[in-house]
Amino acid sequence: MYCPAAFREDRAEVLHAAIRAYPLATLVTHGAAGLTANLIPFTLVAPPSGPVLLRAHMARTNPQVEELRAGADALVIFQGPQAYVTPAWYPAKREHGKVVPTWNYIAVQARGRASVTDDAAWLRAQIDQLTDEQERGRAVPWAVDDAPAAFIAGQLRGISGIEIPVERLEGKWKASQNQSQAARSAVAEGLREGETPSASMADIVAAAT
After folding, report:
1. Which end of the chain is less packed: N or C, by CB atoms within 10 Å?
2. 40 within 8 A of 24, measured Cβ to Cβ
3. What is the rounded CA–CA span in Å between residue 170 and residue 155?
4. Could you tell me how far CA 90 lies from the centroid of its own chain?
5. Domain extent at residue 61
6. Looking at the 3D structure of the chain, how many domains does it have?
7. How far is it, in rounded angstroms, from Cα 159 to Cα 157?
8. CB count, 10 Å around CB of 138?
């Protein structure tokens, strides 16, 4: 991933938090048929020692499963908040007009070689973790156990589990860090109050240095 120094994010805790906050990622592999990409929600396991693990499940009939079984390298792309930045927000537009539009965003890329499992216990643990993470903010969270056991067992037979030990993790926080403090403040204000508000991206720009 092209990442100028101003936009690079290397702190593991920040990258992990972004993955947990925006778990739906693009899983990219390259096999005999060329490039394959699918959107899949991932769970993150970060043990005290050993590699960080990304876990997911997908339909067993998905051709990408066979690519992963064959040992394909995997690229997993997570994307967080993003927003268009108009030159109209920059003080420099009024001063000299030498400004252009841009796009602010956060992205995390993980690389590793996946393994595939059809073990029912592994699959159940992964869907439990994914469900619990997404339901925890609800007043009455739904749990996998709320569905009939036989129904869940049938669903598990139709999916395969994916585990990727992360060999490389990169983050890019493009949040106007290459602009002056006055410009960053103006962008944050514009993102909060503009025609298409983006409060989350505004907070990221305001916190960027």
Report:
1. C
2. yes
3. 34
4. 29
5. 5-80+105-175
6. 1
7. 6
8. 8
The answer to whether residue 193 is domain-embedded is no
Largest CA distance in the chain: 69
Rounded Cα distance between 82 and 2, Å, is 17
Residue 59, domain member (yes or no)? yes
Instruction: Name all contacts of 44-50 with Cβ < 8 Å and 24+ positions apart.
Output: 44/16, 44/19, 44/20, 46/12, 46/16
Tell me if 183 sits within 8 A of 91, measured CB to CB: yes
Q: What is the pLDDT along the chain (209 residues), one digit of tens a residue?
A: 999 999 999 999 999 999 999 999 999 999 888 999 999 999 999 998 889 999 999 999 999 999 999 988 999 999 999 999 999 998 876 778 778 899 999 999 999 999 999 999 999 999 999 999 999 999 999 999 999 999 999 999 999 999 999 999 999 999 999 988 998 899 999 999 877 778 889 889 988 86
Q: Which amino acid is residue 163, in one-letter code?
A: E
Task: Name residue 86's amino acid.
Answer: T
Whether 187 maps to a domain, the answer reads no
